[in-house]
């Protein structure tokens, strides 16, 4: 079974985020090239006249030897060449960056990675499906450009031969037109290949991010925590809370029961606003509360209706006013009994 047969699950947002952090995004280089060609072509049509005049001046200087000083020829050549090329280079850079960002977003990646030096991985990339698709694309591009070059040369061969007897201006103009046609043909070729490559790159990217069920489980454990560990932590927290609650029973004023299923411990002194529920429990925990109460001499009073009412109150909360009278009667009874030295 191949690796991709096991990867049946779509990539999670975390997997996509990690892939982007590592510089793994989907981009069509052919579409970027098409965008660059389109920008150059547009610049040809926008500033064609100005570019043509610069080319004509440059050719005229070489062919007529108007300037004799070799240093002046070099300086002028560099200046005129920069005037011609800088706008095209600027457009190429801007469009290449914009097209790249629009496809996969802005990605900042390490310039040097040790994994890039691994020859085994390099061979795997070459002989992988991605490597095969790149070879097919190269063959298609070579075929298309060969055909276009043949068509361009065949349609303009007669004109190129006739340029021998033409003036510098006419040679420049014909060269300019020929370059424009070449760029147009390249743009159309890259556009066709680029659109097809865009869908191919998107498909390859999604396929490379596919995950196995085990990978999703491991990622869940990393992001959400191991369920067993979380359950263990919750168990420990409950045990600690239960221990604190049972410790509070030893300082309680009274434990009210119903009598077997529910037990609620109340704490009260003259500094408190009202009696407070410091411990409560049902069944087994109720028995533990009563056991701690007996060990520490805390009175245990049976009152079913009151026990049920107190059990509904949140832990460490004061009792409501409607229970003041019933609780006060119990506290008064305990106080009088203890004053007489009797046992409850």
Major β-sheet strand ordering: 4-1-2-3-5
- Note the main sheet: 5 strands, mixed
Catalogue the unreliable spans: none
The whole-number mean of residue pLDDT values reads 77
Strand content: 5-15%
Order of helices and strands: HHHHHHHHHHEEEHEHEH
Tally of alpha and pi helices? 13
Number of DSSP-assigned strands: 5
What is the oligomeric state here? Answer: single chain
Which shape, going by the Cα principal axes? rod-shaped
| Radius of gyration over C-alpha positions, nearest whole angstrom | 43 Å
Distance between the termini: 77 Å
Please state the structural category: alpha+beta
Q: Helix share of residues?
A: 55-70%
Structural write-up:
This protein has a 5-stranded mixed β-sheet, sandwiched between helices. The mean pLDDT is 77. With 344 residues, it is an alpha+beta fold. The protein contains 13 helices and 5 strands. The protein has helices at 3-6, 13-21, 29-46, 48-64, 70-104, 119-126, 129-162, 168-208, 213-224, 227-249, 284-295, 304-311, 324-340; strands at residues 254-257, 262-267, 276-282, 300-302, 317-318. Helix 3 (29-46) runs antiparallel to helix 8 (168-208), helix 4 (48-64) runs antiparallel to helix 5 (70-104) and helix 4 packs across helix 8.
List strands and helices in order, with pairings.
Layout: H1 3-6, H2 13-21, H3 29-46, H4 48-64, H5 70-104, H6 119-126, H7 129-162, H8 168-208, H9 213-224, H10 227-249, E1 254-257, E2 262-267, E3 276-282, H11 284-295, E4 300-302, H12 304-311, E5 317-318, H13 324-340
Parallel strand pairs: 1-4
Antiparallel strand pairs: 1-2, 2-3, 3-5
Helix pairs in contact: 3-5, 3-8, 4-5, 4-8, 7-8
């Amino acid at each position: 079974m191949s690796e991709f047969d096991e990867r049946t699950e779509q990539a999670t947002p975390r997997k996509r985020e990690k892939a982007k952090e590592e510089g793994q995004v989907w981009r069509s280089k052919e579409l970027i090239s098409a965008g660059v060609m389109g920008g150059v072509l547009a610049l040809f049509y926008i500033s064609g006249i100005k570019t043509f005049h610069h080319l004509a001046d440059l050719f005229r200087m070489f062919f007529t030897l108007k300037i004799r000083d070799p240093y002046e020829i070099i300086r002028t050549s560099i200046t005129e060449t920069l005037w011609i090329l800088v706008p095209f280079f600027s457009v190429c850079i801007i469009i290449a960056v914009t097209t790249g960002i629009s496809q996969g977003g802005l990605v900042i990646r390490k310039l040097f990675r040790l994994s890039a030096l691994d020859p085994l991985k390099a061979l795997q990339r070459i002989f992988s499906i991605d490597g095969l698709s790149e070879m097919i694309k190269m063959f298609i591009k070579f075929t298309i450009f060969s055909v276009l070059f043949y068509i361009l040369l065949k349609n303009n061969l007669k004109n190129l031969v006739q340029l021998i007897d033409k003036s510098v201006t006419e040679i420049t103009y014909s060269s300019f037109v020929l370059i424009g046609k070449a760029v147009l043909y390249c743009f159309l070729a890259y556009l066709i290949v680029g659109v097809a490559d865009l869908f191919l790159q998107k498909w390859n990217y999604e396929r490379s991010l596919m995950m196995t069920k085990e990978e999703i489980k491991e990622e869940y454990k990393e992001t959400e925590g191991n369920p067993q560990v979380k359950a263990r932590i919750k168990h420990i927290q409950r045990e600690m809370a239960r221990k604190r609650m049972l410790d509070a029973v030893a300082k309680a004023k009274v434990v009210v029961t119903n009598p077997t299923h529910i037990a609620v411990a109340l704490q009260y002194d003259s500094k408190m606003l009202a009696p407070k529920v410091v411990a409560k429990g049902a069944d087994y925990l109720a028995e533990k509360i009563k056991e701690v109460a007996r060990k520490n001499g805390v009175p245990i009073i049976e009152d079913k209706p009151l026990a049920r009412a107190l059990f509904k109150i949140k832990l460490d909360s004061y009792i409501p006013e409607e229970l003041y009278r019933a609780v006060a009667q119990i506290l008064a009874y305990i106080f009088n009994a203890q004053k007489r030295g009797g046992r409850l």
